[in-house]
UniProtKB/TrEMBL annotation, chains A, B:
This is GntR family transcriptional regulator. Gene3D superfamilies: Chorismate lyase-like (3.40.1410.10), Winged helix-like DNA-binding domain superfamily/Winged helix DNA-binding domain (1.10.10.10). PANTHER family: GNTR-FAMILY TRANSCRIPTIONAL REGULATOR (PTHR44846:SF17), MANNOSYL-D-GLYCERATE TRANSPORT/METABOLISM SYSTEM REPRESSOR MNGR-RELATED (PTHR44846). Residues 28-95 form the HTH gntR-type domain. It comes from Saccharopolyspora oryzae. The lineage of its organism: Bacteria, Bacillati, Actinomycetota, Actinomycetes, Pseudonocardiales. It holds the Pfam family GntR. The keyword Kinase does not apply. Residues 1-25 are annotated as: Disordered. Keywords: DNA-binding, Transcription, Transcription regulation. InterPro entries: Bact_HTH_transcr_reg, Chorismate_lyase_/UTRA_dom_sf, Tscrpt_reg_HTH_GntR, UTRA, WH-like_DNA-bd_sf, WH_DNA-bd_sf.
Length: 265, 265
């Protein structure tokens, strides 16, 4: 009904309909592909002024029917990436930034050049006993205690992530005296210990936000968020910082450059 | 009402209640922390026989109230990680595997030792014209055409990911003749070109599954999934493989070891 007609390249209509997109693929599949392409373009900053082309232009550029384009835009709206208003058109809600997984960096460091990170310190205190599984990860006895931090991190005035951190007692106490509202914990750790951090093991989960997290991050209940576990070590290999971080997935993507090379021994 | 009482280490009750967990933190916050610890333990394979301790034991081990533990278990059930049945207790639904982001590897390669990957080939065909944004990423003219693959990938008899791939025409045609049901595209690419792949740029998004994806992956509508964009290059740097992959986030986490080092130039 509203399906585009395949046109040979250079046909007088000027519409380029890639053959792969108008075959027997069902509309949901094409909509997913269109959404993927647009998500990629949004993250890459292709829509400099924030305005997406209209449905008809998108359909022509991407070789998809109006219905598939509309379905794709619904998916992206549900993800919180775009907003659609009659008379205004379709706009990117917020830039989506890539946070590199190639190198260990604090959030403010990683966002240098993108915007200003500020931290709302919700909790910063010594604890006399660590939770058993956290103590195991930090390779200390629970009774050694430590420092507990919870910070809600803002980028350009909107919540970006909720960071929960346990630090070992020896390095944590110095960090408590630092500028937790203005600085990355990594930088504070390096300043107070006088040593560079070494490495970190990171595990990334995708989860839906519980209502409490959603309220703090100002996103809808059950929106998708990243949940990161990160265990950071000093350069001598000793673990000192066990973090659990929830990141708004509408504002940030994670990026990496991978090399083929050989399997690590 | 049902809040645990702080106990000094070694108290005769034998209950270890970490001080940091029973302070003024609201229950939702403690529930989130308990869920994080259990998710970490599930992913690390700590519950070898799949059975979690009962609520009371978890509360004691993690220093949280029964209500906070129950709320945490509800979060993990919503994520699809655990199942709770009266008389049976709480069990891990499926093992959750870590897929390393340290090295470029196909799924079957990465899952070696975990289980068997099989591929349901939904689409495998030449296309005479590439979608414009895909052609841009592959650095070819749209009219150069290419090969389109869509595969639903199964791990041990359950869907794990939905992979949509565009290959450049020169390398793609050889891959079409390969064993797409049994092999990774990476391996097929290396066999048909006679060269190792070089590197890939990966962008990871967390999104909620659209109904069509959810049905294919056999997960609830709007469950969180990873959406990966991956552009893979031959060892000479030429991009040949533009993929869009949706991965069930209840079955897989992404892992990386990051090093502090210096900022890449």
């Amino acid at each position: 009904m509203n399906e585009p007609v395949d046109a040979s390249p250079g046909s007088s209509s000027g519409r380029r309909i890639p053959a792969g997109w108008v075959s027997s693929q069902p509309r949901a599949e094409r909509a997913r592909q269109v959404a993927d392409v647009l998500r990629y373009q949004i993250t890459a900053g292709k829509f400099a002024d924030g305005a997406l082309p209209d449905e008809r232009s998108l359909g022509e550029q991407l070789g998809a029917s109006r219905n598939a384009v509309r379905e794709a835009l619904d998916l992206l709206r549900f993800e919180g990436l775009i907003i659609r208003r009659r008379g205004v058109g379709t706009r990117v809600v917020l830039p989506k930034y890539g946070h590199g997984l190639d190198r260990l960096a604090g959030l403010a460091e990683a966002m240098t050049g993108y915007g200003e990170i500020t931290n709302q310190v919700r909790s910063a205190r010594r604890v006399t006993e660590l939770p058993v599984p956290i103590a195991e990860r930090l390779e200390v006895d629970p009774s050694a205690g430590g420092v507990y931090l919870e910070r809600l991190r803002w980028l350009d005035g909107l919540p970006l992530s909720l960071d929960t951190t346990y630090l070992t007692a020896d390095v944590g106490c110095g960090v408590l005296d630092g500028d937790l509202a203005g600085r990355d914990v990594f930088t504070l750790l390096e300043e107070t210990t006088g040593h560079l951090l070494g490495s970190a093991e990171v595990t990334v989960h995708a989860v839906t936000a519980d209502p409490d997290t959603a309220a703090l991050l100002q996103i809808p209940d059950h929106a998708a968020v990243f949940a990161l576990e990160r265990l950071t070590r000093l350069s001598d290999g000793r673990p000192v910082d066990a973090e659990s971080i929830r990141i708004r997935a509408d504002r940030m993507a994670l990026t990496a450059t991978l090399h083929r090379g050989h399997v690590q021994p």
